[in-house]
Design goal:
binds coenzyme A; Peroxisomal Thiolase, Chain A, domain 1; 2 domains; 32% helix; 5-stranded mixed β-sheet
Length: 317
């Protein structure tokens, strides 16, 4: 059996923080942010939460797919920014949606989380454990960044995206997932719940921007080639490359390295910034709702992030 995406949804906070407004908070400017990242504005939670955005994105995905909440038998929320640790965010979303028959758990693989959740769902479906899976990536990064640190706060935003998968006869494409804990220091955030807690910069996202940039521009084309090779496919067979939305220059570099026109690499990071594990399903939902993806087209997803971690998936719409 293979899980086929039959519905997508997303939800972003109402409040918008553009580069101009951000320039009043930290020593930066619109021109620098646009040029170095491509980000123009980001949506920031006020009354919303990681769980409320996840639930809304999930509700919209179920509606889009014509799936009832009671039909969902597995609900995974990919997040590292939930305001509630116990129960997991997925159980809170279950409660909101009335997905009473779902087994629920959270998954944290940072910005690669949605991809890892997608592969997990495919494995459960292929093993015959589940038939209908709701996958959600939801993040409130604005709670995690140091708003005095211009090296990180300019990049991130809040939001959620979701996809619902239904089992159907077939074989899933081969998954590609990688992690390298030895390189993890490049992107970290410590929990405040530690014995020796004294507030410090460790409590916020800390990043060696150049190291992460170098990692991403190397690994993204590599993992795209790897997933295609494993599935005996070629670059030309892919209609759209939906990459994690971290930085326009990373997406452009991947397109250049692969020799593929940038028009095959949709982007929405200018509107939302980097929403971590929400970025891929958020873009997928926009691309779906705008009618850009047509049945029968082939989509490749690729993500990377803290861990360090990276991965890719390919499927037919
Ligand atoms: N506004 C204005 N100037 C800034 C700035 C900001 N927000 N941030 C850094 N600068 C300055 C630096 O101080 C430095 O000045 P100097 O040359 O006088 O020392 C200069 O700009 C260049 O800094 P640098 O850090 O080398 O910039 P960069 O080109 O590497 O861009 C990032 C920084 C963070 C945008 C880039 O490294 C990046 O996108 N990395 C990947 C991050 C990422 O995707 N993380 C998430 C992964 S899931």
């Amino acid at each position: 059996m293979v899980g086929k995406i039959c519905g997508t949804g997303s939800c972003v906070p109402e409040h918008i923080l553009d580069n101009e407004a951000l320039s009043g908070m930290v020593d930066t400017n619109d021109a620098w942010i646009r040029e170095r990242t491509g980000v123009v504005r980001r949506h920031i939670i006020e009354k919303e939460t990681t769980v409320s955005m996840a639930a809304e994105a999930g509700r919209r995905a179920l509606e889009d797919g014509g799936v009832l909440p009671e039909e969902v038998d597995l609900l995974i929320v990919s997040t590292f920014t939930s305001e509630i640790l116990l129960p997991c965010a997925a159980c809170e979303v279950q409660k909101e949606l009335g997905a009473v028959h779902a087994a629920c758990f959270d998954l944290n693989a940072a910005c690669t989380g949605f991809l890892f959740a997608y592969h997990t769902a495919q494995a459960y479906i292929a093993a015959g454990i589940c038939k209908t899976v709701l996958l959600i990536g939801s993040e409130s990064l604005s709670n995690m960044v140091n708003w005095q640190d211009r090296g990180t706060c300019i990049l991130f935003g809040d939001g959620a995206g979701a996809a619902v998968l239904r089992a159907q006869p077939g074989t899933p494409q081969i998954a590609v997932m990688h992690s390298d804990g030895n390189a993890g220091d490049a992107l970290t955030m410590y929990s405040r719940h530690r014995k020796d807690w004294v507030e410090s910069e460790k409590d916020y996202i800390r990043m060696d921007g150049r190291a992460v940039f170098g990692f991403a521009v190397k690994k993204v084309p590599e993992v795209i080639r790897e997933v295609l090779e494993k599935n005996k496919m070629t670059l030309e067979e892919i209609d759209y490359f939906i990459l994690h939305q971290a930085n326009r220059r990373i997406v452009e570099s991947a397109a250049r390295h692969l020799g593929i026109g940038i028009e095959k690499f949709p982007m929405n990071l200018q509107e939302y910034g980097n929403t971590s594990s929400a970025s891929i399903p958020l873009l997928l939902d926009e691309w779906n709702r705008s009618g850009n993806v047509k049945p029968g087209q082939t989509i490749l997803l690729a993500g990377f992030g803290a861990g360090l971690s990276w991965g890719a998936a390919v499927f037919t719409w």
